[in-house]
Design goal:
0% strand, single chain, globular, 4 helices, 49% helix
Length: 189
């Protein structure tokens, strides 16, 4: 597993997956300019996590707006209004959803983050030294490559898809806020 981590001597994002030609380490406003590897890994953890949520969100928008058999089929329309409708139909569902998300985040914090009393440098938290951003050990299908080069390539693909999904998800949300139509409704579906 040590072959999957960049050497600690690297600074900034050098050696971390996610850079593609011709842009390389795209940072036009210099947010990572003065960051050491520890702080850069925190940024990467946030990016991977938000990218995964956004990929799930995009899939959720498209599936939930076209296929919604739960709750007696009473939930419909733009996905940004589904949770409001669920609260009316089944109030306990929202509580269960929030509790499940809290458990997932608690697990992620226990696996990847330094406990608050042991934080040395960064207010707001530090990642465990042996933790790689996004790798919480959840791989039920065994898709994580063991070869470091393949792992970096797969991570770059995940990051790029996550970045695209963050933009797409925000576009979906804004579009539905503007005209209160489903995303697929714009295509006559």
């Amino acid at each position: 597993a040590d072959g999957l981590r960049p050497p600690p001597s690297l600074s900034r994002s050098q050696g971390l997956p996610g850079a593609l030609s011709p842009m390389g380490d795209f940072d036009p406003v210099g947010l990572s300019k003065d960051l050491d590897l520890t702080e850069m890994k925190r940024f990467r953890e946030a990016e991977v996590t938000h990218g995964r949520v956004a990929m799930t969100s995009v899939l959720g928008f498209l599936v939930a707006e076209s296929f919604h058999p739960l709750f007696g089929g009473d939930i419909g329309g733009p996905a940004i209004r589904h949770l409001d409708q669920v609260r009316e139909v089944a109030p306990i569902f929202f509580d269960i959803l929030a509790f499940t998300i809290a458990l997932a985040e608690l697990y992620r914090s226990l696996v990847g983050w330094v406990p608050p009393p042991k934080i040395q440098k960064y207010f707001g938290g530090e990642l465990n030294e042996d933790y790689y951003p996004g790798d919480i050990g959840f791989d039920p299908l065994g898709l994580k490559p063991t070869d470091p080069k393949e792992f970096a390539e797969m991570q770059t693909k995940e990051l790029q898809n996550g970045r695209l999904a963050m933009l797409a998800s925000m576009g979906f949300i804004v579009q539905e806020q503007v005209d209160e139509q489903t995303i697929l409704g714009h295509f006559g579906m």
